[in-house]
Amino acid sequence: MIIMKNYEFSDFKISFELKQAIERMGFEKPTDIQSLAIPVALDGKDVLAQAQTGTGKTVAFGIPILNKLFIDDRSPQAVIICPTRELAIQIAKELKRLGQYIDGLKVLPVYGGQPIGRQIRVLKKGVHVVVGTPGRIIDHINKGTLDLIGVETVVLDEADEMLDMGFRDDIEKILEFTPKERQTLMFSATFPKEIKSLAGDYLINPKHLKVSKKELTVSNVEQYYYEAREKQKLDTLTTVMSVYDLRKVLVFCNTKRRVDKLSRDLKSKGYDVGGIHGDLKQETRDQLMAQFRRGKLNILVATDVAARGIDIVDIEAVFNYDLPHDKEDYVHRIGRTGRAGRTGYAFTFVAGKEIYRLRDIEEFAKTEIKKQKVPSFKQIDKIKNNLILNNVIYTIEHDNINNEVPIIEDLIKEGYNPIDIAAALLKLQKNR
Ligand code: AMP
Asked: What is the pTM of this model?
């Protein structure tokens, strides 16, 4: 049983080039699976890890792989086997970002559907890391264009998917072509019997890693999610703020760079917004926090780390602009609203397959996150009218309007129609 420690990236014994890239990518803290897997993998041990896409697993195996590469040797030292072409491309891209400061690093995705000749030409020139689908890797082995003799690390990514797709024989064949003393890292979202048997046959004393946390629950917070791709997120955020007439909201992004970008985008749309993350001086953070508390800023954009100390009772809503990597972060984030007995809102944006992670979060937090559609222009108008008219009715019934009545009466005496006057006031209020 491994006790999870909350690591910082600076705790890992890794090269300066990798640390620099992590900084550049804007990562503020390792995700759970990174905290678990990186120290064990850096130690050279085999790993059997339970992790889904979106939890940061590419970096979890990418760091140990890139950290031990010998760049002068331009033959494959790591091979990553994954189920689909899309995943192969995505992993290769992420590894290139992670290795952006490693001079001469070559990462190549190989998959069916792309002319094999092009892949062969690149392989001939020398490649350090190969990311591929099982079938295409076998093709290269058979053609003699991929030599796995110098491979030190093998990653089986989304192992359960690969077995479901009938790739077991191919995977075994590839493993047989790699040296016995290799390090093997296996990632899988689920652990059916076949996965255990594959691990039993090919991994040596693997550390079984799984993120396990005590359960947390949330109350007092109405939780909704919107389907929004990256391009739609900004508009969705501003629309939801306008519909719910929100004046004090906390927006979470997953990286420091995304906090900076979103703050800039909102500022250029005219919002009073501040962005906080770990790169800012404590003094600056405190200032922004104070402005937010006093209502001078309507929106505070933050990373999880920067938001740790926030204790402001009247935050009306929390937005998960990015779905958090770790379930526990979701609970921490939305716990920032609905304080002191008030009701708060939590709005989460999800795109594509992220919905599966959202379902996991629901289960973990024992809560319901309801789907909501971004309202159309017409619907927004209707919602706003209703909000204003409800306030009007409340004011007529509960407030003192004796000073205002004679002013309206004067207007009517001048010949203006009462309905026109009310409609104009509604319009002005809406445009405010
Ligand atoms: P993956 O599970 O590997 O598909 O990663 C999902 C996304 O999380 C990718 O866009 C990564 O760039 C991003 N990511 C990985 N590690 C971190 C981290 N420590 N902090 C913030 N984002 C991360």
From this structure: 0.74
Q: Which of 82, 94, 95 to mutate to test the pocket of ligand 1 (most atoms within 8 A of CB)?
A: 94
Please tell me the distance from the alpha carbon of residue 383 to that of residue 403, in angstroms, as a whole number.
Answer: 29
Residues with CB under 6 A from ligand 1: 27, 30-31, 34, 53-59, 94, 254-255, 325
Q: Rounded distance, CA 24 to CA 11, Å?
A: 17
List CB contacts of 335: < 8 A, sequence separation 6 or more.
218, 221
Nearest to 318 by CA among 334, 332, 331: 334
Per residue in 253-291, pLDDT (tens digit) is 999 999 999 999 999 999 999 999 989 988 898 899 999
Phi, psi of 318 (to 5 degrees): -115, 135
In this predicted model, what pLDDT tens digit does every residue of 138-160 receive, in sequence order?
999 999 999 999 999 999 999 99
* Nearest to 342, CA basis, from 371, 312, 387: 312
Report the DSSP beta bridge partners of residue 302. 252, 276
Query: Cα dist. 357→51, 131, 325, 335, 390 in Å?
Result: 11, 25, 9, 19, 38
DSSP track, 235-279: HHHHHHHHHTT-SSEEEE-SSHHHHHHHHHHHHHTT--EEEE-TT
Nearest CA to ligand 1 atom 5: 56
CA of 30 to the centre of ligand 1 (A): 9
Q: Output the six-digit token pair for 355.
A: 């919905």
Residues in the chain: 432
Which of the four pLDDT bands, split at 50, 70 and 90, describes residue 242? Answer: confident
Cβ-based neighbours of 221, under 8 Å, separated by 6 or more? 318, 334, 335, 337, 338, 343, 344, 345, 346
- Angle (CA) 358 349 37, round 5°: 50
| Cα 28 to averaged position of ligand 1 atoms, centre (Å) | 11
Ligand 1 centre from 322 Cα, in Å? 11
Q: How far apart are CA 343 and CA 220, in angstroms?
A: 5
- Which candidate, 238, 205, 220, places its Cα nearest to that of 338? 220
Q: Can you tell me the distance from the alpha carbon of 174 to that of 151, in angstroms, rounded to the nearest whole number?
A: 11
Q: Which two tokens stand for residue 239?
A: 């629309």
Amino acid present at 412: I
